[in-house]
Every structure is written in C-alpha cells, then in structure tokens.
Amino acid sequence: MSAVKLDGKATAARIKADLATRVAALKDRGITPGLGTVLVGDDPGSQIYVAGKHRDCAEVGIASIRVDLPATATQKDVEAAIDELNSSPACTGYIVQLPLPKHLDTMALLEQMDPAKDADGLHPVNLGRLVHMVDAPLPCTPHGIVLLLQEYDVPIKGADVVVVGRGITVGRSLGLLLTRRSENATVTLCHTGTQDLAAHVRRADIVVAAAGVPELITRDMVKPGAAVLDVGVSRINGKIAGDVAPDVEEVAGFLTPNPGGVGPMTRALLLSNVVEAAERA
Ligand SMILES: Nc1nc(=O)c2c([nH]1)NC[C@@H]1CN(c3ccc(C(=O)N[C@@H](CCC(=O)O)C(=O)O)cc3)C=[N+]21
C-alpha cells in the first residue's frame, strides 16, 4: 500500500490564488494589506522563514515591512518595533518571529501586540478567543492542517486524533481547534510526559507529529490507513528531518510530504490572516 500525498504545496497555491483576487478587490477600495515581520538575531533558519514570508506577500500583492534587529536588541528595542507596527497604517498585520533570543520576555512582547494585527493568531487574547470558541485570527499551522485534511476529504468529525507535541504554535492550539463543535474531533494531546506514545498513536485515525524529534513516529506505531501529518522542522546537515519516519508511507492512508506539506500551508494561512484583518478594518 502507499499513502495518498497530502499536497500542501498545491493546496497552498490554490489558497494564494484566491487571496490574490481578494487583495486586488481591497486595492480597488484603496486598501493595501501589509505584513510586518519582526526578526531578532541571525538564526539562519529564522532568516529563511522570514524571507519566504516576504516572497509569499509579493506573490499575492501584499506589501511587506521588514524589521530586523540584532541579537543584542534589548526588550525596549523590540517594544519600540512593536509600538511602531501597532501604530503604522501601512501594517495591517504582523508577526514576531519565534523563538526570540533567551534574554527577551516573549510573553510580554506578545501581549504588547495589537490583537487586531496579530497575523500568527498567537496573541493571548486571540488564543483566549479560540478557547472561548469565538471568531478570531487562527494560529496558522493548526488552521492549515485542518484545511489540508478537508481538501482531501479526510473525515475529522468523530475522528480519533493524536497530536504529538504541546507547543503553543502547533500542538496545544490544534487541540483547541479540532475540539470545537465545528470540527468535533476527539483529541489526545501527547507530550514528553506521555507514558506509552506508541499505544496512543496506534489508535489514531489522524496523527499530527509536532514534537520536533526526527523520526519519532515509526511505521509500527501507525494504524493502517491513518492520516499522518508531519510538522517536524528539525535539520540534519541542512536537510529537513521530519518527525515521521519515511516508511510510514507504506502503512498510512494519507501522508504529508515534508517539505511540501504543512510548511506551505502555514505560510498561506499567515497571508490569509493578513487579508482577513485588512477586510475587517
Ligand atoms: N511567529 C512565528 N510564526 C511562525 O509561523 C513560525 C515561527 N514564528 N517560527 C518558526 C516556525 C516554523 N515555520 C515554518 C513555516 C513554513 C515552513 C515551510 O514552508 N517550509 C518549506 C520548506 C522550506 C525549507 O526548505 O527550508 C516546506 O515545508 O515545504 C517551515 C517552517 C513557521 N514558524
């Protein structure tokens, strides 16, 4: 058997084509959406991601504003950059690239952002709205995962979903998203304290691997026919090493390639949050 490829790259291209139309309509009304990025330090991975986001913006007609600060930037320096984007009319949405250098207080900086301009959906107010199940910008990776499953008609309602990893950007937020009434999945959130990971994964109709541990999910753990989504972005000798072992392809019913799976969806949903914020404003 071999798994159906959950093609994030192709699905993201369709989403971006739709966004380009909506951006053109906004421009006809005199509104140009603009994405800001705040990048602190010179981590090569973060540089690549931020550059990619600006390329994506150009592709759909969103203006972009890039704020790069040195690794030595103080809390006050980053606060000043956030204040600037909060008050800039050209910036309709922005992100602070994570993780920030350790000497900075990430939570304080996130709280300082205008929640209406939160393109990542990670502001505590917007995550709180997700907990309350009211409308808010959604975290990009979880939202991208849900849309990718829907694109391939993978049933979510009633599915047993095992999410591996409890990080804010993916695992924890995805649990909140999938347990809303509109998705109605049953979610088990596994993490480093989970006693028998394999036993949980084996029962899952949908497995989302977001632990950042290369090849954590092995073939023997996956129920035949299950949908497996690989969110891993570790690197070994510069090459992406996902959380899912390659031979899972032989048992899974659906599998994301990595690269070309969840990553492009994350980027497309970031653009979508920017466009939606501009449409609301
Ligand atoms: N505030 C914030 N928001 C984020 O959304 C955020 C972040 N911080 N910090 C880092 C993670 C990671 N992340 C990725 C997005 C796209 C790809 C992506 O498109 N990857 C390509 C491959 C690119 C390559 O080859 O390096 C793919 O999967 O096809 C990967 C990783 C967003 N993150």
From TrEMBL:
Homodimer. InterPro entries: Aminoacid_DH-like_N_sf, NAD(P)-bd_dom_sf, THF_DH/CycHdrlase, THF_DH/CycHdrlase_cat_dom, THF_DH/CycHdrlase_NAD-bd_dom. Pathway: One-carbon metabolism; tetrahydrofolate interconversion. Belongs to the tetrahydrofolate dehydrogenase/cyclohydrolase family. The gene is folD. The keyword Coiled coil does not apply. This is Bifunctional protein FolD. It holds the Pfam family THF_DHG_CYH.
